């Protein structure tokens, strides 16, 4: 059945509509693949086989009647951050033990309304805090990719590591993910998949467990650019329940694919050429420029002068919001409760046992930067930096730049339990160096696989667009994808 | 923030201590529950008295991934209140999170407004008195700000031997926190301020002002100083739930602070609670124990912005406020005292306005104040429970004006309507209470009385005021139905008393 799981969403869609295959067959193929792989890869924390088969059956009935939505019968994996009614929703945290919401997030509800089938819930860094999927209460996810002639287990990136690994390893046709500082784009780059973080406000945050509300945004991880366009179209919507969602029509992103980039201005930001950046990353970047130039785009040097402040500012804003967003996990109403002699001790024991190290670290950082006497020096300044970062981008776009090309990550995937990263959390945070600016400015960004490094590991390029101009990103990313070719993973699991 | 002292020390308001007179400085924070169908950020009902946890939405329970959505009606209510307090309306304001842990605060933070409230500076005129001469004094009290915030739920500690219960019905209900400037200088002023605030809120229909149900509560900041000196260190008395208790709390707190200072001590800035049973305040937490609330703008909510037209529209539909209504009533010929009684509560004012419509305002005021309010007071009833409707009372006044009944008979009609109901005109008809205006009939009665009392006639010629006795006899003989003016005129004419 591997041939079925190797179909892209677009391919499966045609075969389903043409009645060449049924959703039940497709779903069963994925369930078998998950069954065979998940003990090794640990991409899923919950497989909803019965629900998947039910949904597939209903899809088949609709397809038989010539009906069905844009994703009718397509089996998807859902990041554990999305609230799914009656199904495991724990943000991969111990503190949400046993939590099954009585509501469905707007994004997943949109997907089901378009006929998609849920295979299960995907592993992730606890509360989406991490860049390696190692902070999950359910253990690390293994990257389906390995270096040539190596048995070393690599991380799939994070926080949407389960999503990226599942898509890369053919354990779902596509997956939902979320991106607060790079959590879609970095794992996509580490696994040779496509991931887009749309403009802030494009997808509703309602029903998605919050990490940092002003930065969180849902998006898809898929095997190619077309699939990302198809999935985002279904995920995106305005939502009266999320007043930060934006009321503008969702374009048919797929129709942007195949359009020429001739005459388009692509900006190359000087500040993204970091000291100590591997030569391979620079080479890949140059290749990306060449491909776009060959396709008729104009490559222009630009400057985003406040880039170097983005990462420190991000690691103030995001933990500040997180420290407040995670206050509700107190053991009173749902999830884990560790009894204490009084309410304070119950809080302390519950939160001590319920949160992992990285989450605790960020709650502490966030609490600190918001404290009396430190607020102005940290939080307020970080917000000012954020305004400057946003202005950098606005200036560049006002000068006629249509999109910005950067590397997606400063390196390829690294090993699980990497000693350097464990010793210095800042090293781990540096994974987000090219991606956080996009969240700070609320812009759309897409990561596209662009080549392999010397060890045969995938590397990605990132395109950054104007607010709500995802179409230009899909169009340009498609050109890169065509030029770079595909990089199939070698199955070893 | 520098505090500006707007008041000149007034000997009447000082309180004596062992070392001389002291002046109390008071600032108030009133928490007023907004009248709205649903909560500030969720669609759950705000109905009072529902079963515990019946009015709790997913947002109120702070389920993962839930988001607040501002309730426009609550915003309108806050703007209306701001307009009623003659305050600056901020067309852009920001919601912040106030972070602290408590079981009845499911989010772990309260959504409030910290740096940019929806309403800025305004003022309230309070009326203090009467003094020994029966005079009232108007004092202008500054409003610092008004902001919108969520109420917390309720912890119940008396339901289980070892556990506490939490009722989230109130969690997320909209509150307006109205902060005064430290302009109040006595417990009487503080009580007058609260009374006035409640009156304004009730007129506006933005808060029901029911302190016993907790829909209006006050935090009172009290400090003492030598008259006109520097502001002293203040203590905040939390959650006082009646106007009377506010007065008691201030008096006892001021005496406590004066005693400490006069003993050579100093005041610790702290939060205190008022114990109504003991009539005194006690320490709740010191400044050192105060929470660090880590306020920051709520990233789930965009800044709240509206335009001039939004405010204009609300301003145009604002009801008449007590001060304006009082001025209008005075311009209609009412005394300031009568006018202030009538406007004291909006339902009374509304009642009066219905009675006075198309009638003499002064007559209507006399009937409402002396007869209606007097009877209600005696019966222990509120204006909402009055057995005599404005239309009925108006009908009685109309019958006096048309000359159908005398003022005295009117009191009897009022009694009948009070007890039995009915249309006053019908009552007068059916019970034959119409006064006799037929000059011939009255003349007959007058003649009879004069004929029967020759000695009195003689006396009256010498002492014209005795005419009143004859009038009384005629009224008695006609069972009060004769028109007293007509009787008076005839008696005087017959007795030959010159006008």
From TrEMBL, chain A:
InterPro entries: Amidase, Amidase_CS, Amidase_dom, AS_sf, GatA. Keywords: ATP-binding, Ligase, Nucleotide-binding, Protein biosynthesis, Transferase. It is an enzyme of class 6 (ligase). One of its GO terms (biological process) is translation. GO terms for molecular function: ATP binding; glutaminyl-tRNA synthase (glutamine-hydrolyzing) activity; transferase activity. It catalyses: L-glutamyl-tRNA(Gln) + L-glutamine + ATP + H2O = L-glutaminyl-tRNA(Gln) + L-glutamate + ADP + phosphate + H(+). GO terms for cellular component: glutamyl-tRNA(Gln) amidotransferase complex. PANTHER family: GLUTAMYL-TRNA(GLN) AMIDOTRANSFERASE SUBUNIT A (PTHR11895:SF151), TRANSAMIDASE (PTHR11895). Belongs to the amidase family. GatA subfamily. This is Glutamyl-tRNA(Gln) amidotransferase subunit A. The lineage of its organism: Bacteria, Pseudomonadati, Pseudomonadota, Alphaproteobacteria, Hyphomicrobiales. The gene is gatA.
Automatic annotation (TrEMBL), chain B:
InterPro entries: Asn/Gln-tRNA_amidoTrfase_suB/E, Asn/Gln-tRNA_Trfase_suB/E_cat, Asn/Gln_amidotransferase, Asn/Gln_tRNA_amidoTrase-B-like, GatB, GatB_C_1, GatB_Yqey_C_2, Gln-tRNA_amidoTrfase_suB_CS. Signal peptide: none annotated. Coiled coil: none annotated. Its EC number is 6.3.5.-. It catalyses: L-glutamyl-tRNA(Gln) + L-glutamine + ATP + H2O = L-glutaminyl-tRNA(Gln) + L-glutamate + ADP + phosphate + H(+); L-aspartyl-tRNA(Asn) + L-glutamine + ATP + H2O = L-asparaginyl-tRNA(Asn) + L-glutamate + ADP + phosphate + 2 H(+). Transmembrane segments: none annotated. Keywords: ATP-binding, Ligase, Nucleotide-binding, Protein biosynthesis, Transferase. It is an enzyme of class 6 (ligase). It comes from the Bacteria. Residues 350-495 form the Asn/Gln amidotransferase domain. GO terms for biological process: glutaminyl-tRNAGln biosynthesis via transamidation; translation. One of its GO terms (molecular function) is transferase activity. Heterotrimer of A, B and C subunits. Allows the formation of correctly charged Asn-tRNA(Asn) or Gln-tRNA(Gln) through the transamidation of misacylated Asp-tRNA(Asn) or Glu-tRNA(Gln) in organisms which lack either or both of asparaginyl-tRNA or glutaminyl-tRNA synthetases. The reaction takes place in the presence of glutamine and ATP through an activated phospho-Asp-tRNA(Asn) or phospho-Glu-tRNA(Gln). Belongs to the GatB/GatE family. GatB subfamily. This is Aspartyl/glutamyl-tRNA(Asn/Gln) amidotransferase subunit B. It comes from Oricola cellulosilytica. The gene is gatB.
């Amino acid at each position: 059945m591997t041939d079925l799981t190797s179909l892209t969403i677009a391919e499966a869609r045609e075969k389903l509509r043409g009645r060449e295959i049924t959703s039940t067959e497709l779903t069963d193929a994925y369930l078998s693949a998950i069954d065979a792989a998940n003990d090794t890869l640990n991409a899923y924390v919950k497989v909803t086989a019965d629900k998947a088969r039910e949904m597939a059956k209903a899809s088949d009935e609709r397809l038989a009647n010539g009906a069905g939505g844009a994703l009718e019968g397509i089996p998807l994996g859902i990041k554990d951050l999305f609230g799914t009614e009656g199904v495991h929703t724990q943000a991969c945290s111990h503190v949400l033990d046993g939590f099954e919401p009585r509501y469905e997030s707007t994004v997943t509800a949109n997907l089901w309304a378009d006929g998609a089938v849920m295979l299960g819930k995907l592993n992730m860094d606890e509360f989406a805090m991490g860049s390696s999927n190692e902070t999950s209460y359910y253990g690390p996810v293994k990257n389906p990719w390995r270096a040539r002639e190596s048995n070393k287990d690599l991380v799939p990136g994070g926080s949407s590591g389960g999503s990226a690994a599942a898509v890369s390893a053919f354990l779902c046709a596509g997956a939902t993910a979320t991106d607060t500082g790079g959590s879609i784009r970095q794992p996509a780059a580490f696994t040779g998949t496509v991931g887009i973080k749309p403009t802030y406000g494009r997808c509703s945050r309602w029903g998605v467990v919050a990490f940092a509300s002003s930065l969180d945004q849902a998006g898809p991880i898929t095997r190619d650019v077309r699939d990302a366009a198809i999935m985002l179209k279904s995920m995106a919507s305005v939502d009266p329940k999320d007043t930060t969602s934006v009321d503008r029509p969702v374009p048919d992103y797929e129709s942007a694919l195949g359009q020429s980039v001739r005459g388009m201005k692509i900006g190359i930001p000087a500040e993204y050429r970091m000291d100590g950046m591997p030569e391979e990353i620079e080479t890949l970047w140059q290749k990306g420029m060449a491909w776009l130039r060959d396709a008729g785009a104009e490559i222009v040097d630009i400057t985003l002068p406040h880039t170097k402040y983005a990462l420190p500012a991000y690691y103030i804003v995001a933990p500040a919001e997180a420290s407040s967003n995670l206050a509700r996990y107190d053991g009173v109403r749902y999830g884990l409760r560790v009894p204490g002699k009084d309410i304070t001790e119950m809080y302390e024991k519950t939160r001590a046992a319920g949160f992992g190290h990285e989450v605790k670290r960020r709650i502490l950082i966030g609490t600190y930067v918001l404290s009396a006497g430190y607020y102005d020096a940290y939080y307020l300044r970080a917000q000012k930096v954020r305004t400057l970062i946003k202005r950098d981008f606005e200036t560049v776009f006002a000068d006629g730049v249509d999109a910005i090309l950067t590397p997606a990550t400063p390196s390829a995937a690294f090993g699980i339990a990497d000693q350097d990263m464990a010793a210095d959390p800042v090293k781990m945070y540096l994974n987000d160096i090219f991606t956080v600016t996009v969240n700070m400015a609320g812009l759309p960004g897409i990561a596209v696989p662009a080549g392999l490094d010397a060890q045969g590991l995938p590397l990605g390029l990132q395109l950054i667009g104007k607010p709500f101009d995802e179409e230009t990103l899909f169009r340009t990313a498609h050109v890169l994808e065509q030029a770079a070719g595909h990089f199939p993973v070698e199955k070893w699991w | 923030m520098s505090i500006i002292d707007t008041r000149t020390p007034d000997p009447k308001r000082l309180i004596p201590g062992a070392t001389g007179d002291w002046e109390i400085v008071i600032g108030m924070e009133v928490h007023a529950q907004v009248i709205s169908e649903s909560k500030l950020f969720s669609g759950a009902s705000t109905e009072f008295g529902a079963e515990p946890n019946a009015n709790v939405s997913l947002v109120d329970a702070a389920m993962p991934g839930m988001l607040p959505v501002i309730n426009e009606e609550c915003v309108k209510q806050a703007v209306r209140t701001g307009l009623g307090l003659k305050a600056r309306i901020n067309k852009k304001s920001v919601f912040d999170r106030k972070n602290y842990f408590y079981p009845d605060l499911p989010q772990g933070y309260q959504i409030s407004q910290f740096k940019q409230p929806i309403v800025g500076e305004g003022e309230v005129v309070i009326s203090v008195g009467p003094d020994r001469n029966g005079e009232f004094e108007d004092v202008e009290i500054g409003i610092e700000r008004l902001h919108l915030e969520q109420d917390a739920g309720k912890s119940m500690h008396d339901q289980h031997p070892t556990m506490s219960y939490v009722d989230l019905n109130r969690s997320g209900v909209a509150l307006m926190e109205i902060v005064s400037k430290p302009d109040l200088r006595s417990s009487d002023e503080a009580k007058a301020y609260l009374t006035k605030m409640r009156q304004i809120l009730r007129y506006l229909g933005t808060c029901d002002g029911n302190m016993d149900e907790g829909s209006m509560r006050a935090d009172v900041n009290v400090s003492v100083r030598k008259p006109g000196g520097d502001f002293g260190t203040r203590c905040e008395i939390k959650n006082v739930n009646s106007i009377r208790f506010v007065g008691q709390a201030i008096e006892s707190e001021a005496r406590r602070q004066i005693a400490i200072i006069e003993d050579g001590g100093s005041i610790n800035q702290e939060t205190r609670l008022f114990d109504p049973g003991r009539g005194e305040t006690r320490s709740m937490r010191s400044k050192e124990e105060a929470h660090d609330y880590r306020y920051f703008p709520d990233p789930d909510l965009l800044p709240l912005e509206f335009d001039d037209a939004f405010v204009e529209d609300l301003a145009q539909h604002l009801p008449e406020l007590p001060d304006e209504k009082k001025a209008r009533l005075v311009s209609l010929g009412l005394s300031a005292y009568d006018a202030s009684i009538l406007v004291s509560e909006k339902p009374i004012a509304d009642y009066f306005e219905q009675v006075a419509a198309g009638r003499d305002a002064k007559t209507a005021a006399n009937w409402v104040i002396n007869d209606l309010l007097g009877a209600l007071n005696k019966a222990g009833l509120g204006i909402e429970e009055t057995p005599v409707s404005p239309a009925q009372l108006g009908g009685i006044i109309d019958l006096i004006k048309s000359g159908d009944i005398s003022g005295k008979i009117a009191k009897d009609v009022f009694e009948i309507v009070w007890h039995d109901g009915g249309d006053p005109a019908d009552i007068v008809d059916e019970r034959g209470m119409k006064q006799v205006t037929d000059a011939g009939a009255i003349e007959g009665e007058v003649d009879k009385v004069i004929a029967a009392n020759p000695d009195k006639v003689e006396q009256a010629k010498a002492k014209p005021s005795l005419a009143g006795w004859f009038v009384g006899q005629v009224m008695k003989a006609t069972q009060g139905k004769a028109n007293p003016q007509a009787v008076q005129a005839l008696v005087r004419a017959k007795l030959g008393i010159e006008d």
